[in-house]
Amino acid sequence: MDKELFYLDRVSFKYQDFQPVFNNLSIIIQKGESVSLLGANGSGKSTLLKILCALVFPSEGIFRAFGQVINEEAMENEAFSKEYHRRLGFIFQNSDVQLFTTRVWDEIAFGPLQLGWEQDRVREMVDDVINLLGIKHLKERSPYRLSGGEKKKVAVASVLVLNPQVLILDEPTSGLDPKTQRWLVDLLLELKRGGRTIVTSTHNLALAHSISERALVLSEQHCLVYDGPASDVLENRDLLMEVNLIDEYCHIHGEGEHIHCYTHE
Ligand SMILES: Nc1ncnc2c1ncn2[C@@H]1O[C@H](COP(=O)(O)OP(=O)(O)OP(=O)(O)O)[C@@H](O)[C@H]1O
Ligand SMILES: [Mg+2]
Description:
The chain contains 10 helices and 12 strands. By secondary structure, the chain is of the alpha/beta class. A 6-stranded mixed beta sheet has the order 6-7-8-3-9-10, with helices on both faces. A 4-stranded antiparallel beta sheet has the order 2-1-4-5, with helices on one face.
């Protein structure tokens, strides 16, 4: 079986007439991998995830996913584009851009209904995912009136209901309290065990360490400066300082490997 999932070969990308974000970026991600994408603000994490999700397209280079070339032309084919977005779930950095109905239950049912699933099946799948995520108490609420963490859970539910093979998460833990972060980590580990491919962008080094065996690090100049084991990058203080993921107050305790981002006694 071919293990290759995403293949980027010397990809360049820029937003309209702005300065290029990426030049000659090459990355291969295999099926079943859990990869964390690390980098400071503006390093290009969200942009790279948007390329993987075919929301924007490289101006140069080759981008293949599931063995097929992904470009604007391919995505103009409605059946192809629908199938692509069914296989690949994207959890946006900002849940507000993802939620657009007036009731949580409808929000989660929207994707399956769009795909033409039968009403009974939709009802069953939506209720299952609501139970799985423990958000039964939210199902009649308006998504707009939820807290940030509750919105994130609904966004996760609306993606998981389609049971995608690949999950792309943009800063999934930002704004979540420790218990909700733990819940998300456990959920991602469970999905990983179930064979899903997971690509997560984050500043949260502990999250990268918990869920990913591999890390990709983008510099502030949008270059890929590290591609290797997630555990090694956490010990690489010089690299983390250079790419602005830690500052001089941050120190890493070698034994038991944990990071303090502020000074302490
Ligand atoms: N729609 C856009 N139009 C023009 N430039 C953009 C657009 N979106 C992002 N950029 C620029 O592209 C670069 C990469 O931005 P991106 O959002 O990918 O960074 P990021 O690593 O996700 O940052 P953050 O950690 O703040 O979310 C930045 O220089 C940003 O200003
Ligand atoms: Mg971002």
